[in-house]
């Protein structure tokens, strides 16, 4: 019988040689094709077994048996290793130290406390009816046998410890199923159930028997990876069924106390690394992975979140059996395994997608080398990293050999714990990235995919989506039919299923390329087949769609003939009809031709925006010449360069501008010429399509402007396309905003005049003043504008600020630079529903190339919309650097072709040759290289930035648009631009330039922290009055870089200097790293420009200087000088490096400093004025209405705004949104501009005192409601703001405080079973989300103030729904999101599985106001939620009453539909809450809530709780339909 080692070598030899029946005694040279068989098998053995086989060791060997003995001799000669045996672990009572693998899993679990990524789900379908109780007993016996299966992980004295329960602890359920897909659904449910490693059982088993039909049982298991690995699943099942058979036959389980436990393995592993071994291994990995190891920067479907949530799913695909056979043959020829081939192909695929020549891929490897470890259940794996470098000139065979060597090297050093490697290598990663690697590849051993029982092989199903450990993980396992069953586990925060499906298809294609073309250079390996390439190219080829070209001047003359008396052009108080404009242009054309100017000549236009400039442009076209626009605002040197470069024959100008021209230039001054005597008739056709129409200059790589030549057929095609894309041009009024030197002016001028519309010119003064521009658009009824993004953003911000409505506006085209959809732009288009937003793209070399209408609800618009599809007359190709067509979703450089291309650059043959390349797909034609990086999406092309000038910081590619969108969303910001600045060699920093915004620019960086990954938060923010613009209206990024100085970011003296020698030491290290300058003890490291790499360096310096083990996490949580110094002192004094304590909510409950209640409260009959916070919120708006309706009080509304006018505008906007604006009485509502998050409510001391004297009662309804944000993000408003309101209520006059709380302050862990108005929430540690945590703290602060003498009434409010009359509601209302999701899915779970306690918002507001006026309700806590509630059958009736067909499906099926739609493009109304549901963060537990006291008070006031009836739901749906929240496009066909 073969030994385990000999069997393993034999299996490997069979794989390498392809001889399936090879035995251990067979001659390799005779059976396997000659003398080269032995070297190939030896190479594979070296790689797989990490064995240092030398020629000396294998000399004379010719069989597998002899080779195995050589390996054994090698191992025997190695240093003596400890043996693995039972009792090796050092147990202390019920505990043993955690293993290194468990430590890593536990740490990941701490970073993402709601994650299920490290669950280990699997299930098997047995063709027999198992006895559920016998199976329960069998599970008990297995768990009892293996300590690790009854273990929790806890910190004890700062050490992570395995705590073993003396009794078998596991979750066990018995269920039934009837359909074939139900076992997978049960497995998915189990997989998505959170396991608390400190308290919960790590084993879950569900015994599901089929109800009716064949006798089948599904056994669904989940063993957390802290207690298992892939091999453990098979071991568990084998032992489980052995114990089951013993139970049903009445046999006892033999005690095998001599078998080692997982804790023994952990100790054995620790001993194996003793002495110099671990440092040796770590030195190796530092050498392999140190230095610049770039993050895997795959293109994502969504921006990377600041912190990973580990949300994930699984997408299966198959590598077909015939291809697998070819790959085995390739492996045999090259001496590599299927695993190595897969690694090589995956590395190439990732390299192409990420556009990186170097990628790091993790691979879990088994540590079950000792025979004694073979049947140990536990986490006996470690992660190793293969660093792949891909060179286009290397062949596939070269790559396979490199991967073989890399894998062999990794296997030889596999024993170094991955967590120790990370700690040593100190990778440069931000919070949104997993450390060191972002992807892994797993090849599951053949034996672990099936389980044998009764002579039958039963598949073990593992592909259950339950979270993602990395961005992307590839799992391969051999199938029974020779195929590879593959799957991608992917992060659903980053990728859509369609994107991942494409990755799978491309991987299969790359594997096929490897198998069939092993001698091909890697640069020749394509991701698409020739047929797929042709299909993509054909889809983007629209050359045949263009109309036959005609001269542009004739298109204009057609419009003259159709409507000669229509107004063609307006400027200030002057206008010309089409007839008048044509006649003036004709006279000029005749003059030019008389002077010898015609086809082949170039005429300069040196004119400011005016009617004459339009006449001149048309006149030149009609003469046959081409025009060369030269902006009079350009520097004289540039003007001379442009004129000389273009070789102009004549310059048309006027006397006011002529002085800026060179003295030698031949000129024609229009205001000095009398054209009246010249012919006014059309000169006739003189131009051919291929003749020049203009030459426009752009920046050249030499620093001198280069002239782009455009032909007449390009402009004629543009005019035709524009007429179809933008029909408003034919009937509306188009603004002429752009300088003639910017080619978009052609779209404005000729796109309007060749369509029959009116062109409206503006002065340069109005153009530069966005306030004046906005008013100009309104006053002149402009219907269409072409604006660069910065102007679109500025216009939207001004219109929103001023409440300006542009009633005539129908179309806004964003041109010239990347469009970023900011909150102001969303609001602008929401308030202008008749206006379209077009994103237009086109380099000067083609003019317009693509366009995209940003459609649907502005609230759902992406931040960076697509640039769309190509126009008629053009062909598009997205190519990689090798000239290969890239698949959809993969970044590539955009190339443009077709007859409307520019012929090139005037007098620049070399540059023309570099940019205009031979078209490999259309011989004889050319493709223009745009230099723009794009990728194909479902909306067309997505612009990703420049290929040659991308911002890259610390190895990360950064899209400025994403950062700018986040900045533009901040209060008071008018516009922003982001660029990279090199402050020192190797020190490139991201700098944001902001127009407007907070007075302290550092507030911008603080606001972005937690919103963006740390590498995307600008290191410095420069506040400007306005952004500098290029003449074309774009943000001038080159000028911005010159406006930054590091010295300007430093202060001479900190606000509060370091207070101790230790703080001074920390501050000194800060200053050295950040570049000098004064550092205060409360300054924030990251706000001053620090980032994660600097943080790593800082920790290293502090450790060295103070001789303490300072964890990086400690620094991240204490990012001030004072905080770091205090933590260093604590570690130095206590010797513990345990992580800081978690959030202590009771410690957060603090009354304002110096709080005291002095005097008696204002009597009810003396109250004339009240203060209301939160008036721009949903409930707050209705509180305003009811206070005005039912009382005579004057209501002061604290509103976050810059001044009273803006505060009133916000109040009015909110009231309008809910249809209650008629209630706002300006005589009784006082808009108070302030801010809860600032001292004195954001008021001056004088205003604060005056308000405190005037007000007699305070209603506090303001809150930052967001279930996704952490406590720290909502604390400023919800906790600190409440504290300030409490202080205000006691200031000057003592005022009664009515505080709006929430029923959610009670956690699922409340000790009381029934919670009434008298109950106090006592278990805040179990509150799962930041919002409820903050409301708990706020309520306790209010209660303490009550205990101190302040009269307070607390209203714990349940779910608030739409207005009972109109249905008006907030779009984030949770019931509405549920209803909307049901409509979107066409399906809903059974009505009896859901309940609602909704109360209409108008009833809640009425109740609060009435109770606040009733002395019997004062100084109490009241519960405002529906005491009866209702199931969702009532909700479904309301949905159906509105014509929406919603079918009731099984709850599991509904969950499946919901999660599928949440991951799909467009998502689902409940998409954001799916993880919270799954992790139980929104659960209120099994608490019973009562509000008998409140109900009695309301009955007495004549306000009984209203019935919950279908009409209320129907009214809410109709309201949202009316405001466009439920567009028809969102509603699918009902599910089958």
Automatic annotation (TrEMBL):
Names of required cofactors: pantetheine 4'-phosphate
Assigned keywords, A-Z: Ligase, Phosphopantetheine, Phosphoprotein
Region feature (Disordered): 81-102
Biological processes annotated in GO: amino acid activation for nonribosomal peptide biosynthetic process; lipid biosynthetic process; monocarboxylic acid biosynthetic process; secondary metabolite biosynthetic process
InterPro entries: AA_adenyl_dom (IPR010071), ACP-like_sf (IPR036736), AMP-bd_C (IPR025110), AMP-bd_C_sf (IPR045851), AMP-binding_CS (IPR020845), AMP-dep_synth/lig_dom (IPR000873), CAT-like_dom_sf (IPR023213), Condensation_dom (IPR001242)
Domain Carrier: 1057-1132
GO annotation, cellular component aspect: cytoplasm
Protein biosynthesis as UniProt keyword: no
Keyword Ligase carried by entry: yes
Highest taxon above the source species: Bacteria
Sections of the chain in a coiled coil: none
GO MF: ligase activity; phosphopantetheine binding
NCBIfam families (UniProt xref): AA-adenyl-dom, Thioester-redct
Protein name: Amino acid adenylation domain-containing protein/thioester reductase domain-containing protein
Organism, scientific name: Lentzea fradiae
């Amino acid at each position: 019988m073969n030994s385990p080692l000999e069997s393993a070598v034999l299996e490997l030899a069979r794989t390498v040689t392809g001889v399936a029946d090879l035995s251990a005694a067979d001659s390799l040279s005779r059976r396997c094709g000659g003398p080269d068989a032995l070297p190939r098998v030896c190479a594979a053995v070296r790689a797989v077994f990490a064995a240092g086989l030398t020629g000396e060791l294998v000399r004379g060997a010719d069989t597998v048996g002899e080779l195995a003995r050589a390996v054994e001799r090698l191992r025997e000669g190695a240093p003596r290793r400890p043996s693995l045996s039972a009792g090796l672990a050092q147990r202390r009572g019920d505990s043993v130290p955690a293993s290194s693998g468990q430590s890593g899993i536990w740490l990941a679990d701490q970073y993402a406390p709601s994650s299920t990524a490290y669950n280990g789900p699997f299930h098997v379908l047995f063709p027999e009816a198992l006895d559920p109780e016998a199976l329960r007993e069998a599970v008990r016996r297995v768990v009892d046998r293996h300590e690790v299966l009854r273990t929790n992980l806890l910190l004890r004295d700062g050490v992570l410890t395995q705590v073993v329960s003396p009794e078998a602890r596991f979750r066990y359920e018995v269920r039934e199923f009837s359909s074939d897909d139900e076992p997978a659904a049960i497995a998915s449910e189990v997989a998505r159930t959170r396991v608390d490693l400190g308290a919960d059982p790590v084993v879950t088993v569900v015994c599901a028997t089929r109800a009716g039909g064949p006798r089948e049982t599904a056994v669904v298991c989940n063993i957390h990876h802290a207690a298992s690995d892939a091999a453990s699943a098979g071991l568990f099942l084998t032992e489980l069924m052995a114990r089951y058979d013993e139970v049903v036959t009445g046999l006892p389980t033999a005690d095998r106390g001599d078998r080692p436990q997982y804790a023994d393995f952990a100790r054995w592993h620790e001993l194996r690394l003793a002495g110099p071994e671990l440092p040796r291994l770590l030195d190796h990995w530092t050498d392999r992975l140190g230095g610049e190891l770039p993050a895997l920067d795959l293109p994502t479907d969504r921006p990377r979140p600041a912190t990973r949530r580990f949300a994930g799913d699984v997408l299966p695909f198959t590598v077909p059996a015939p291809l697998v056979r070819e790959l085995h043959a390739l492996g045999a020829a090259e001496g590599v395994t299927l695993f190595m081939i897969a690694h090589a192909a995956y590395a190439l695929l990732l390299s192409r997608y990420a556009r990186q020549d170097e990628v790091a891929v993790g691979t879990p490897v088994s540590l079950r080398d000792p025979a004694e470890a073979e049947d140990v259940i536990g986490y006996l794996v470690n992660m190793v990293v293969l660093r792949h470098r891909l060179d286009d000139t290397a062949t596939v065979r070269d790559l396979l050999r490199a991967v073989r060597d890399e894998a062999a090297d990794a296997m030889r050093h596999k024993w170094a714990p991955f967590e120790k490697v990370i700690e040593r290598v100190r990778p440069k990663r931000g919070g949104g990235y997993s450390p060191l690697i972002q992807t892994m590849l797993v090849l599951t051993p053949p034996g672990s995919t099936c389980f044998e029982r009764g002579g039958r092989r039963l598949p073990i199903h593992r592909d259950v989506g339950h979270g993602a450990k990395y961005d992307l993980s590839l799992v391969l396992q051999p199938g029974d039919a020779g195929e590879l069953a593959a799957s991608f586990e992917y992060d659903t925060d980053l990728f859509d299923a369609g994107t991942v499906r494409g990755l799978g298809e491309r991987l299969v294609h790359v594997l096929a390329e490897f198998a069939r073309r092993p001698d091909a250079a890697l640069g020749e390996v394509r991701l698409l087949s020739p047929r797929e390439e042709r299909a993509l190219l054909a889809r983007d080829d629209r050359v045949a769609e263009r109309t036959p070209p005609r001269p542009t001047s004739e298109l204009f003359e057609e419009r003259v003939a159709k409507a000669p008396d229509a107004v063609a052009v307006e400027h200030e108080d002057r206008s010309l009809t089409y007839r008048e404009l044509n006649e003036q242009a004709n006279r000029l054309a005749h003059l030019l031709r008389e002077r010898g100017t015609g086809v082949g000549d170039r005429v300069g236009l040196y004119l400011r925006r005016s009617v004459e400039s339009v006449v001149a442009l048309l006149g030149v076209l009609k003469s046959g010449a081409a025009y060369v626009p030269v902006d009079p605002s350009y520097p004289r040197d540039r003007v001379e360069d442009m004129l000389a470069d273009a070789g102009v024959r004549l310059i048309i100008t006027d006397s006011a501008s002529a002085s800026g021209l060179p003295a030698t230039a031949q000129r024609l001054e229009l205001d000095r010429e009398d054209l009246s005597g010249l012919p006014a008739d059309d000169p006739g056709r003189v131009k051919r399509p291929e003749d020049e129409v203009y030459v426009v200059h752009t920046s050249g790589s030499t620093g001198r402007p280069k002239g782009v030549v455009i032909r007449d057929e390009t402009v004629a095609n543009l005019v035709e396309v524009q007429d179809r894309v933008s029909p408003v041009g034919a009937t509306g009024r188009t603004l002429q905003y752009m300088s003639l030197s910017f080619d978009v002016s052609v779209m404005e001028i000729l796109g309007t005049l060749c369509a029959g519309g009116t062109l409206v010119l503006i002065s340069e003064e109005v153009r530069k003043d966005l306030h004046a521009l906005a008013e100009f658009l309104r006053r002149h009824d402009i219907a269409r504008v072409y604006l660069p993004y910065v102007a679109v953003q500025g216009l939207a911000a001004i219109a929103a600020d001023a409440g300006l409505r542009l009633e005539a506006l129908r179309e806004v085209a964003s041109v010239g630079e990347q469009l970023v959809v900011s909150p102001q732009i969303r609001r602008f288009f929401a308030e202008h529903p008749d206006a379209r937003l077009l994103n237009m793209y086109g380099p000067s070399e083609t003019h317009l190339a693509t366009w995209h209408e940003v459609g649907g609800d502005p609230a759902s618009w992406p931040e960076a919309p697509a640039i769309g599809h190509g126009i008629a007359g053009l062909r598009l190709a997205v190519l990689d650097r090798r000239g290969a067509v890239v698949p959809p979703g993969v970044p590539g450089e955009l190339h443009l072709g077709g007859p409307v291309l520019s012929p090139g650059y005037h007098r620049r043959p070399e540059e023309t040759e570099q940019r205009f390349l031979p078209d490999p797909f259309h011989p004889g034609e050319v493709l223009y290289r745009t230099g723009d990086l794009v990728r194909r999406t479902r909306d067309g092309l997505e612009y990703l930035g420049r290929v040659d000038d991308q911002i890259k910081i610390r190895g990360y590619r950064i899209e400025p648009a994403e950062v700018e969108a986040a900045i533009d969303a901040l209060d008071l910001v008018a516009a922003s631009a982001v660029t990279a600045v090199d402050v020192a060699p190797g020190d490139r920093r991201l700098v944001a330039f902001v127009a407007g915004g907070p007075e302290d620019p550092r507030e911008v960086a603080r606001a972005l922290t937690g919103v963006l990954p740390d590498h995307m938060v600008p290191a410095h923010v420069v506040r400007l009055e306005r952004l500098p613009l290029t003449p074309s209206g774009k943000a001038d990024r080159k000028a911005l870089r010159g406006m930054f100085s590091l010295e300007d970011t430093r202060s001479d003296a900190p606000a509060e200097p370091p207070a101790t020698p230790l703080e001074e030491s920390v501050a000194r290290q800060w200053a050295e790293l950040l570049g000098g300058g004064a550092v205060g003890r409360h300054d924030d490291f990251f706000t001053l420009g620090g980032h994660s790499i600097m943080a790593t360096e800082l920790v290293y310096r502090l450790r060295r200087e103070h001789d303490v083990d300072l964890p990086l996490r400690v620094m991240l949580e204490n990012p001030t000088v004072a905080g770091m110094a205090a933590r260093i002192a604590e570690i130095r004094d206590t010797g513990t490096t345990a992580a800081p304590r978690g959030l202590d909510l009771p410690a957060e409950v603090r009354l304002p400093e110096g709080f005291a209640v002095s005097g008696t409260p204002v009597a009810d009959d003396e109250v004339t004025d009240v203060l209301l916070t939160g008036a721009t919120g949903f409930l707050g708006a209705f509180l305003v209405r009811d206070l005005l309706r039912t009382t005579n009080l004057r209501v002061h509304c604290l509103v976050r705004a810059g001044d009273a006018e803006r505060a009133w505008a916000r109040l009015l906007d909110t009231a309008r949104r809910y249809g209650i604006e008629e209630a706002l009485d300006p005589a009784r509502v006082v808009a108070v501009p302030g801010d809860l998050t600032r001292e004195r409510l954001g008021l001056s001391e004088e205003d604060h005192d005056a308000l405190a004297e005037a007000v007699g009662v305070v209603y506090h309804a303001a809150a930052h409601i967001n279930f996704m944000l952490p406590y720290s993000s909502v604390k400023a408003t919800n906790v600190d703001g409440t504290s300030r309101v409490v202080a205000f209520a006691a200031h000057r006059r003592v005022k009664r405080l009515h505080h709006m709380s929430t029923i959610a302050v009670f956690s699922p862990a409340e000790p009381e079973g029934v919670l009434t108005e008298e109950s106090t929430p006592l278990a805040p540690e179990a509150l799962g989300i930041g919002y409820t945590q903050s409301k708990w703290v706020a309520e306790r602060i209010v209660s303490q103030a009550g205990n101190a003498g302040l009269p307070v009434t607390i209203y714990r409010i349940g779910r608030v729904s739409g207005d009972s009359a109109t249905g008006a509601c907030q779009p984030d209302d949770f019931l509405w999101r549920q209803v909307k999701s049901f409509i979107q899915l066409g399906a809903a779970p059974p009505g009896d599985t859901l309940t609602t306690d909704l109360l209409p918002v108008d009833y809640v507001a009425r109740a609060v106001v009435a109770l606040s006026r009733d002395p019997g309700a004062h100084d109490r806590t009241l519960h405002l939620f529906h005491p009866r509630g209702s199931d969702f059958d009532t909700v479904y009736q309301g949905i159906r009453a509105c014509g929406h067909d919603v079918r009731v499906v099984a709850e599991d099926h509904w969950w499946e539909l919901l999660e599928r739609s949440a991951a799909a493009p467009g998502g689902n109304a409940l998409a954001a809450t799916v993880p919270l549901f799954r992790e139980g963060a929104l659960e209120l537990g099994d608490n019973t809530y009562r509000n008998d006291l409140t109900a009695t008070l309301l009955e007495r006031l004549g306000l009984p709780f209203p019935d919950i009836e279908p009409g209320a739901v129907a009214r809410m749906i109709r309201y949202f339909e009316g405001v466009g929240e439920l567009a028809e496009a969102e509603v699918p066909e009902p599910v089958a």
